[in-house]
Amino acid sequence: MDRKEGLILLGIFLVVLAVRLTLAFSLPTFTYESYYHLRQVEHIAQTGLPFFHDELSYGGRELRFLPGFHYVMAFFTLVLPLEFVAKVIPNLLMASLTFLVFLLAWKTTRNVRASLVAAAVGGFLPILYNTNSFTPETLFLPLILLAVYAFLNLDEKEYLLLYFFSLLALSLTTAATFLLLIGFGIYLLLSLLEGKRLSRAELELIIFSAFFFLWVQFLFFKKTLLEQGAGFIWQNVPSPILLDYFPSFSLTQALVSISLIPFLAGLWVVYKSLFEMKSGRLFLLISFVISTILLTWMRVIRFRLSLSFFALILAILFATFYAQFTDHIGRTKFSQYAKAISFVLVVAVLATLLLPALSTALRQEVASSDQIAAFQWLNRNTEETAGIVSTLEEGHLVTYYAQRRNMMDDKFNLIPDIEQRFQDLHSLYTSSFETQAVDLMERYGMQYIILTPYGKEKYDISLLKYRTSNCLRKVYDQKDIRIYRRLCTLRALNESGGE
């Protein structure tokens, strides 16, 4: 790659970064799950340790998670404000995918122009434009591509060290690293079926990776595994929303999230590689395509994360399609128009990516400024021991902004009564009976319930049906957000003759 091509790659990275940061700062807040990770980073920055016992979540519970992402982000908060770090660093990591996609495309095609096109495709994949998401996935995706690139270069010693570093970081960041190991397993199977011998270094490294990853996971999740057994895989998600977290593979959603041309081109390369080209390097990438589809179908990995990795692999494979397409055009009677045809293809691909990417960013489920103001009001105007009922997703706003106990949030592991609790939370927003609402709030030690536009949309209600209750007094009513306080117990309500 010469200096001009290097500048083009840098330009692609800077454009992607600029677009992502513009979108991120156009929204003042973050996705709901992000506030859980913000709390962890704050705690690490203050104490040096994550909290594995949370006094506020579910009214007090044990937490088990991998803290790698939180330590990385806490490091940046030593010199930068947390909110700035939360918006800039994840988007910087996601923009860096352009470099990694380029390197992997170059490794498989040795075609600089095709690799640059693949980098641009990888930079604007719609599925990746959750720009206000502060979650471990933003670190996982660059790390897993880095691990794959290092694995493809094992013949050079420095890349072996790079692989060990990326494997360690991945194992401490998310259990989704399992995706890498399954991909390696399918790679072994495909190689055997095609009679391709793997090097001893590859075999030893794959075996080491599997044992190392499992050992790290056992260290952090031993208690969860012993208590939940196989249910650990599905993270104790309540059955009514299990399909929301682990939906089956959807071709329609994949087309929308990846875009038509890269999707079809990637599948074409997969087909040609398996049945005609039989390239060892492409075999590894194709193994990850198969492992992603397999684990998504088995509902082992959350759909959005698996689809993001799937999209990146297809972006890399698009370089092979582009190289073969331009080569074919150059050998036909249209060769004199080869550059123009290639340019039209690139424009068409980017055009199908940009609008969906912008739409994805603008449709993110983020907390509104009015919601945050209401939860901050709860922090200033409620007793420190108060419990607050909110929707499942807003549970992290209760613990982050209100700094009070919530009834429920989306961290389900190690919660023994999760199904009943989820049903009771639903009842608190949909029940018509005052006695049932008061009983449930009293049972879980909740003194307040908040109803926001997000809650109204989720439960398809306009107001709480028991809002006229003498036992529930409205204490906040601003910007279509209402907060009610429980004033009595079920016993007192029954003695007074309440419904």
Question: Can you characterise this structure?
Answer:
The protein is mainly alpha-helical and 499 residues long. The model has no long low-confidence stretch (mean pLDDT 88). α6 (112-123) packs antiparallel against α15 (303-330) and α19 packs antiparallel against α20. Helix content is 64%, strand content 5%. The protein has a 5-stranded mixed beta sheet with strand order 4-3-5-7-6. It has helices spanning 3-26, 34-47, 68-76, 82-95, 97-109, 112-123, 137-151, 157-171, 178-193, 200-228, 242-245, 251-258, 260-277, 280-297, 303-330, 338-362, 369-381, 395-402, 418-430, 434-443, 453-459, 490-495, and strands at residues 53-54, 61-62, 387-389, 405-406, 448-451, 472-478, 481-486.
Count of runs of 4 or more consecutive helical residues? 22
Task: State the major sheet.
Answer: 5 strands, mixed
- Overall radius of gyration: 25 Å
Q: Which structural category fits the helices and strands?
A: mainly alpha
What percentage of amino acids are in beta strands? 5-15%
Global geometry: elongated
Please give the number of β-strands: 7
What's the rounded overall pLDDT mean? 88
Question: What is the chain-wise order of helices and strands?
Answer: HHEEHHHHHHHHHHHHHHHEHEHHEHEEH
The first-to-last residue Cα distance is: 77 Å
Please give the order of strands in the largest beta sheet: 4-3-5-7-6
User: What percent of residues adopt helix (DSSP H or I)?
Assistant: 55-70%
